[in-house]
Design brief:
By secondary structure, this protein is α/β, with parallel strands linked by helices. It contains twelve helices and 47 strands. The strands form seven sheets. Strands 11-12-15-18-21-24-27-31-35-38-41-44 form a twelve-stranded parallel β-sheet, with helices on one face. Strands 14, 17, 20, 23, 26, 29, 30, 33, 34, 37, 40 and 43 form a twelve-stranded parallel β-sheet that branches. An eleven-stranded parallel β-sheet has the order 13-16-19-22-25-28-32-36-39-42-45, with no helix packed on it. The radius of gyration is 30 Å and the shape is globular. The relative contact order is 0.07. The structure holds calcium ion (CA). Calcium ion binds next to loops.
């Protein structure tokens, strides 16, 4: 045994199949002034010692002046007081959903051996670990145990800190995690020097903190063939954690603490073992943490020095629980003046960020600047609106081709155009094409939130990542197009995508003096209502709580009057009176049908009592693979077909509740729809998450293949045996041991 202060590192020749019985010893230098440690090369078990040098990379000096090797457990304990303050201040800027934990890293992170097994079994866990688990289980967003894995969540095999730097903004925008654990470096060892690596890691941490995301930083494990460099990388990360005062998981030190001599599964002494099944902390490849079967889901002291992923899970769980304690003790987070706090669920569609503006940019931060910019912006120009609340005195018109009006921060809830409950119309697009409105909120409007002056010829409008909140007639309204010149003027090729439509409560009479007991009874309210449109795409939007005073609101999505060739897909509609309406029962004589050649697929509709999906005067439309959940539906109209619907195909829809209600006498093909209350077999129908669980056997693999449906509501490809409904079920891999990384 070596004395406790002496650390030993094995020496590896380039070709590690050749055993060289040598190590480097790191020993305290008791007598030499200015030198804390000595480095020796030791050959042979008896220890022929050769002095290599006196420079020791990993040394910290405590406030008492006493030197010790860095990375031992006490370092993290000492550090805690340092990071609490920064974590709380960071969290004050946080705008996303509490309980979200992102894991940014490479193969050591994307594997389901990391983090995902924890909820299943924790044999021999010490009481402190069990307490940490209870804290985390009560706090963590459930999908962050298993589902936040893969490149789009910031983890992929073989990736480097450079990849992270290139993609971090996208991840932050998409996930907006409350906390992010970051571990990169193993794949940087061959390609980067320490300074480059440290610079990148430092920038990653800073950008997370700027986002309001609390960072838990991790050192990399030691690596076979890169012992000194991995140690230097670990030291670099410790330094960042000290400088930026973020919590640290010192995986490198914790491994060396438990296995100073034989952490490396590539050592010849482990030649009898294969792959991950090695009884030390690194696998046979000398790169990845080990995962020996005998310690699966075991957190005994013995397992923590014999199962590399168990050790990482233990360290991450306990550190994250500390962070939760700090964050949940913090005061409720600060709000931007006027910022909205919309309903949010981690599985709601997330908008990809828009590309940077290409043409001239006008930056505005006041109402006056906003109106002035809209008046003078040239074709192709961009108006970037700073975070803040804009009390709008009148309707703002966009009248110029190719203009983009967007929030500067990309945070739609922070750029609020507010009608304050008195403005009739807030934003209007008039006589122009190729306009984009993005990354902002329109709220508190009596009639129309965004008005398309369709009679003036508005083409290829894109609404992207907007919030429409408390709009009391129509959030998006496209009006009639006069018969003269209709083919030229009708709005074509428009997109409404990644928008959130929500009202805080059902409509009241005082919201809209035009909606009275004598005419609409307080029910003249809806989401998107457009007429005479062609070639629209309405996808990846969320609609929550669009309700009339007495439960008879218009559709969340309502398209009518000779509209043609539209796609309505991947929308989530939750607790609205009426879901997706192709047409309605009032049809003027000069309108032959309301909707022709529409494709409605892969939507979730939960509790829309007036009708989930309605076809009412349509021609050659397709309603495919939607999931509609409303088992206690008062009218039984999960899908309702009424009046003429010639050529309608209704197939592969999952109706969790009453079956298709067909009141139409047209030739309609009803094919392979499933009607059954699947409340217990869906992921979270109470909150509108209608994805299938393994219990939904009636829906899994029982669909008919349809050429129009090649993916699902999440964009996942359909299996060869497609499921019924909007979501294709994919079995979760076994929780532990399975799916270990390949680089
Ligand atoms: Ca399937």
């Amino acid at each position: 045994m070596l004395p406790p202060e002496v650390r030993e590192f094995p020496v590896y020749p380039k070709n590690h199949s050749v055993l060289v019985d040598a190590s480097i010893l790191l020993c305290p230098a008791w007598n030499l002034p200015g030198v804390s440690h000595m480095l020796y090369l030791r050959r042979g078990a008896l220890g022929l010692l050769i002095v290599l040098g006196i420079i020791v990379p990993c040394v910290t000096r405590t406030s008492s002046g006493r030197s010790r090797s860095a990375g031992v457990a006490t370092a993290a304990a000492e550090q805690r007081d340092a990071w609490i303050d920064v974590a709380q201040k960071t969290h004050a800027r946080f705008t996303g959903r509490r309980g979200t934990l992102a894991q940014f890293g490479d193969s050591i992170t994307v594997t389901r051996a990391f983090w995902s097994p924890l909820p299943y079994a924790r044999k021999n866990a010490p009481p402190a670990m069990q307490a940490a688990f209870n804290t985390v289980r009560a706090y963590l967003a459930p999908e962050c145990w298993q589902e936040w894995k893969g490149a789009s969540y910031g983890s992929e095999g073989g990736k480097t800190s450079q990849w992270a730097e290139e993609n971090l903004d996208t991840w932050l925008q998409r996930l907006n995690p409350e906390v992010a654990s970051i571990m990169f470096g193993t794949n940087d060892l061959q390609t980067m020097d320490v300074a480059q690596y440290q610079g990148r890691m430092r920038r990653l941490v800073r950008r997370c903190l700027d986002n309001g995301t609390v960072v838990i930083l991790s050192t990399i494990p030691p690596r076979h063939g890169f012992v000194e460099k991995a140690a230097a990388f670990a030291a670099a990360v410790r330094e960042i954690s000290r400088d930026l005062r973020v919590p640290l998981i010192d995986f490198h030190a914790e491994i060396l603490k438990r296995r100073p001599d034989d952490w490396d599964g590539a050592l010849d002494r482990f030649a009898a073992y294969d792959g991950y099944d090695v009884p030390t902390l690194l696998a046979r490849d000398g790169v990845h943490p080990s995962a020996p079967k005998r310690f699966e889901n075991d957190y005994s002291a013995e397992a923590l020095r014999g199962h590399g992923y168990a050790l990482r899970n233990y360290l991450t769980l306990t550190r994250y629980a500390e962070v939760i304690d700090v964050l949940s003790g913090a005061a409720s987070h600060r709000r931007i003046e006027g910022a909205v706090q919309p309903p949010s669920q981690a599985w709601f569609p997330k908008a990809p960020p828009l590309p940077l503006p290409k043409g001239p940019v006008l930056r505005v931060s006041t109402v006056d600047e906003l109106f002035a910019a809209a008046a003078r912006v040239g074709p192709g120009g961009t108006i970037l609106v700073a975070d803040g609340q804009y009390r709008m005195p009148r309707r703002l018109e966009i009248r110029t081709d190719g203009v983009t009006l967007r929030g500067a921060s990309g945070r739609r809830e922070r750029v609020v155009l507010d009608g304050e409950g008195v403005l009739g119309e807030l934003l209007a697009v008039t006589a122009c094409s190729d306009v984009t409105i993005a990354d902002l909120t329109v709220q508190n409007v009596r009639w129309n939130g965004i008005k398309i002056d369709s009679e003036t010829g508005v083409q290829r409008l894109t609404l992207h990542n907007c919030i429409l909140h408390n709009i009391w007639q129509r959030a998006v309204k496209g009006v009639k197009v006069p018969e003269k010149d209709r083919e030229r003027l009708r709005p074509q090729g428009c997109r409404v995508q990644y928008c959130l439509f929500y009202n805080d409560r059902p409509k009241r009479f005082e919201d809209d003096p035009a909606d009275t007991a004598e005419n609409f009874g307080g029910n003249y309210v809806g989401g998107i209502d457009v007429m005479y449109v062609r070639g629209w795409t309405i996808r990846d939007n969320v609609f929550v709580g669009i309700k009339g005073r007495t439960g008879s609101a218009r559709g969340a999505i309502f398209v009518w009057h000779e509209s043609q060739d539209c796609i309505i897909e991947r929308n989530v509609i939750l607790d609205c009176d009426s879901g997706i309406c192709l047409g309605n029962s009032s049809k003027p004589d000069d309108v032959p049908v309301h909707c022709a050649r529409f494709l409605v697929r892969n939507n979730f509709v939960t509790r829309a009592p007036e009708n989930g999906i309605l076809a009412d005067y349509t021609r050659d439309c397709k309603i495919l693979n939607n999931t509609v959940h409303d088992p206690h539906s008062r009218l039984g109209r999960l899908i309702r077909l009424v009046h003429d619907n010639e050529g309608l195909l209704v197939a592969n829809n999952l109706l969790s509740g009453p079956p298709v209600r067909n009141e139409s006498s047209s030739r309609i093909i009803l094919k392979n729809n499933l009607a059954k209350d699947l409340t217990a077999a869906l992921v979270d129908p109470e909150h509108g998450n209608l994805r299938l669980t393994a219990r939904a056997a009636e829906a899994i693999d029982t669909g008919v293949p349809l050429p129009e449906v090649t993916d699902d509501i999440d964009g996942k490809p359909r299996s060869r045996t497609p499921d019924i409904g909007a979501s294709e079920y994919v079995a979760s891999p076994a929780p532990a041991g399975a799916a270990l990384p390949t680089r």
